[in-house]
Backbone:
């Protein structure tokens, strides 16, 4: 297999998504130099983020993330290429990395399935896909936990969260989601996955709706966490 990859790389070389250098046969998305520049989310940082984003609302029972999001950094390049250039393999790659990170938590969380944060149908039609689905799919392959993307629907088109305050982001998400199959989420432990969690407003609103429809517990995970 390695020889085949080397042969393919000779004729169709692959390049690092971040620095554009030629990738070695054992490198999938980015070179080791660029990957090493992406800061991991430490346990201490994750504890701080949980206290800040989720403790008071009491709808997210546990939270984990693989990396810290930095503007203009290597991870932003990867996520941008995933979301706006349709490079799905990046989503699968980051999903697997996230799965490796939270593998130890799965024994405690015991999620029945993974739900990627849904896009509104207009946004999905514009983009052509939901980037969080590919993260969930990459996690699913590693953790052997099914992905359920039809149980939760985004029913309200929301403006971008980028320039909103913490309170405005929470208000922006109110009533944005609806459970489609209540009988499928009732009594279940559910893991919600998003690409980047900033304030936590989006996953918190997802969790709130799922709990209101009978879910037992809801957990959240993301490729990256941001301030």
Residues:
């Amino acid at each position: 297999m390695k020889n085949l990859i080397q042969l393919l790389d000779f004729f169709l070389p692959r390049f690092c998504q971040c620095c554009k250098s030629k990738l070695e046969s054992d490198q999938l998305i980015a070179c080791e130099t660029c990957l090493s520049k992406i800061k991991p989310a430490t346990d201490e940082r994750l504890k701080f983020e949980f206290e800040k984003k989720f403790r008071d609302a009491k709808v997210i029972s546990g939270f984990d993330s693989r990396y810290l999001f930095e503007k203009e950094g290597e991870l932003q390049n990867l996520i941008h290429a995933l979301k706006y250039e349709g490079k799905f393999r990046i989503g699968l790659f980051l999903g697997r990395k996230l799965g490796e990170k939270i593998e130890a938590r799965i024994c405690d969380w015991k999620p029945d399935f993974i739900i990627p944060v849904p896009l509104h149908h207009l946004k999905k039609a514009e983009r052509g896909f939901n980037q969080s689905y590919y993260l969930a799919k990459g996690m699913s392959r590693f953790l052997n936990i099914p992905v359920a993307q039809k149980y939760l629907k985004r029913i309200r088109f929301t403006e971008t969260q980028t320039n909103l305050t913490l309170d405005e982001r929470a208000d922006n998400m109110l009533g944005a989601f609806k459970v489609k199959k209540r009988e499928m989420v009732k009594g279940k432990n559910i893991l919600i996955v998003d690409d980047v969690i900033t304030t936590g407003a989006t996953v918190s609103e997802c969790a709130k709706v799922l709990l209101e429809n009978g879910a037992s517990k809801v957990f959240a995970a993301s490729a990256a966490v941001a301030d």
